[in-house]
Specification:
Length: 207
């Protein structure tokens, strides 16, 4: 088929229901670089992770109001020791998000955002994180916005429901900033996505 035919198909195919973008070109360019897998976790797996994380998180206080900080209303931990059931889940994440040859950071980043918590636009430091970021969302939905660092008119919105997995790699990880919208701005297009407390479990490749 002629190239024009392919382009026509791309323009008329709706994007999957959990990714929106500023334009068809950015959607198609990031199709494999910014991926959401809704329902990646079963209800039992979500429960396994949140039960295991809750006591560790509860010991910490939510942090606020560093004016220059990227994250507001959060507590976090870097976790290396996991139950066998959780290790099996993390292994599924590894297989789904990372090529077999890619080494991961040994600690998994667990971030607990309270209902009013949010993450401002940032690019993960290349000193501490390699090509790929994979995150599970627990408890509450949220909207992640990606915005091209040089061309802010180019953006994507990812709808992250509880139990979903997102993956940012390559251009989505390096050329776009990402953020988690505060409750007052938490919309996926026209659709309001009320924010509650959200826990993310984030695996990253080594730099
Ligand atoms: C981060 C980050 C996203 C998330 O901690 O750098 O972007 O899903 N987190 O919590
Ligand atoms: Mn980040």
């Amino acid at each position: 088929m002629a190239a024009g035919g392919g382009r026509l198909v791309m323009r008329t195919l709706p994007a999957p229901g959990w990714v929106r973008g500023s334009d068809p070109a950015v959607l198609s360019r990031l199709r494999d670089a910014a991926v959401v897998k809704p329902g990646f976790l079963s209800a039992a797996e979500e429960e396994t992770l949140s039960r295991e994380l809750e006591p560790e998180l509860r010991r910490r206080r939510y942090e606020y109001d560093h004016w220059d900080a990227a994250i507001h209303g959060f507590r976090e931990t870097e976790k290396t020791l996991w139950s066998q059931a959780s290790r099996a889940i993390l292994e599924r994440v590894r297989a789904a998000a990372f090529p077999p040859s890619q080494a991961l950071l040994p600690a998994v980043h667990v971030l607990d955002l309270e209902r009013r918590g949010f993450i401002k636009p940032h690019v993960d430091s290349v000193k501490f994180c390699g090509d790929t970021i994979a995150g599970l969302s627990l408890l509450s939905a949220g909207v992640m916005r990606l915005r091209h660092v040089q061309q802010p008119g180019q953006w994507l919105e990812l709808l992250l429901e509880p139990g979903s997995l997102y993956v940012l790699r390559g251009p989505a990880r390096y050329d776009f900033s990402h953020e988690i919208l505060p409750d007052g701005e938490s919309f996926f297009g026209e659709r309001r996505v009320p924010r509650g407390r959200r826990i993310s479990v984030i695996c990253r490749s080594q730099p």
